[in-house]
Amino acid sequence: MSARTVSVKVASVRVLSAFLLAAAVLAAGAPGAVAQTGAGYRVVAARTGFAGIEARLNAAIAKHGMIAVTRASASDGAAGRGLSIRGDVVIGVFRNDVAIRMLAANLDAGIEAPVRFHLVEEAGGGASIRFHLPSVVFGRYEGEAIKALGRELDPIFEAIARDAAD
User: Fold this and answer.
1) Which of 88, 53, 47 is nearest to 71 (CA)?
2) Which of 121, 127, 143, 145: disulfide with 53, CB 3.0–4.6 Å?
3) In Å, how far from its chain's centre is CA 138?
4) How far is Cα 155 from Cα 21, in angstroms, rounded to an integer?
5) Burial state string for 11-38 with b = 16 or more CB within 10 A and e = fewer than 16
6) What is the average pLDDT score of the chain?
7) Is the predicted pLDDT of residue 10 greater than 60, yes or no?
């Protein structure tokens, strides 16, 4: 790997960390606020604190046959810069066979994968799991096959959140 490639990757990580930090700081300024409301957006209160919620989510993801394919954390990025903010982690969840079906149904929907869970440390010390139902994520694309795929994934994602929160 060339020095330029490493430099570009480091710069990309820094930009992503700055973006996630800014989003977390904005969210921290409005305790309990839910920026996105409406049908298909879920906020599930966890029975445990933030410290254990990521491990519980990962266990629930595996239990329901899905795979955690991405992870981004504004709070980890902030800690790396010597700052402390409330816990904030985004986990992208999908599976290759689902991805292949998604792309066959609607190539443009590929930008939506993986579907994400947002883990938030609440101001009172609790935690929540936030996500859009896959039917909402994929429902805006044309074609019955992509809409059906979203509906098929809804109960899986709801079960993952429910199991992680309990």
Assistant:
1) 88
2) 127
3) 15
4) 31
5) eeeeeebeebbeebeebbeeeeeeeeee
6) 85
7) no
Q: Is 65 left (phi over 0), alpha (psi -120 to 50) or beta?
A: left
Please state, in angstroms and rounded to a whole number, the distance separating the CA atoms of residues 152 and 98: 10
**How many Å apart are CA 72 and CA 118, to the nearest integer?**
10
Chain centroid, CA 79 distance in Å: 20
Q: What CATH class does 3-165 carry? A: alpha beta
Which of 64, 23, 22, 60 lies closest to 44, judged by CA? Answer: 60
Rounded Cα distance, 11 and 31, in Å: 31
- The answer to whether 148 and 129 have CB atoms below 8 angstroms apart is no
Q: At which residue do the structure tokens 């993986």 appear?
A: 114
User: What mean pLDDT comes out for the span 100-119?
Assistant: 98
Q: Report pLDDT for 38.
A: 75
Say if residue 34's pLDDT is above 50. no
Distance of alpha carbon 160 from alpha carbon 64, whole angstroms = 7
